[in-house]
Structures are given as C-alpha cells and as structure tokens.
Amino acid sequence: MNRIARLFTIKTKFEAFVVIYGLGLGAVERGVHYLQQYPGYGGWLLFAASPLAVFMAGTRILDSIERSQAD
C-alpha cells in the first residue's frame, strides 16, 4: 500500500508545478462554464474566484514542498 501511496506524493517542485498547471486549466474551464450559465457580473465573479482558489492552493503546495525539502 505504501508503494502505491508514493506514486501520488508530490516530491519535487516540478511535480508541484505540473499539478498546479492542471488545477489551473480545470479552474479556467470551470470559469468558462460559469460565464455560459451566469451571464453578466455574477459569471465574471465566479470566473475570477475559480483561479484565485488555485493560486491559494498552489502557494500551499509549494510551501509544503519547500518545508519538506528543508528537513
């Protein structure tokens, strides 16, 4: 079980950036759907909130990688 769990562990900054890139693509795609479903300011606010959540998560991922490499 530990061998399988290691496959899903982010160990390097490169892996972190790849994960963040994938999350960003998904967030923008979700934002486009929000714009189609909610035209106007509401859709644009939801569109802006999606990538902001990825920025916050990406910062947390990178911070955790730096802390684990420092140990």
Structure description:
- The chain is an all-alpha fold and 71 residues long.
- 86% of the residues lie in helices and 0% in strands.
- The two termini are 24 Å apart.
- The mean pLDDT is 91.
Tally of DSSP helical segments: 3
Overall strand count = 0
Task: Quickly give the structural class.
Answer: mainly alpha
End-to-end span in angstroms? 24 Å
Structural shape = elongated
Poorly predicted sequence stretches spanning 5 or more consecutive residues: none
Helix content: over 70%
The oligomeric status of these chains comes to single chain
Q: Kindly report the average pLDDT value.
A: 91
Biggest sheet architecture: none
Beta-strand share of residues: under 5%
| Topology as a string of helices (H) and strands (E) | HHH
Report Rg.
16 Å
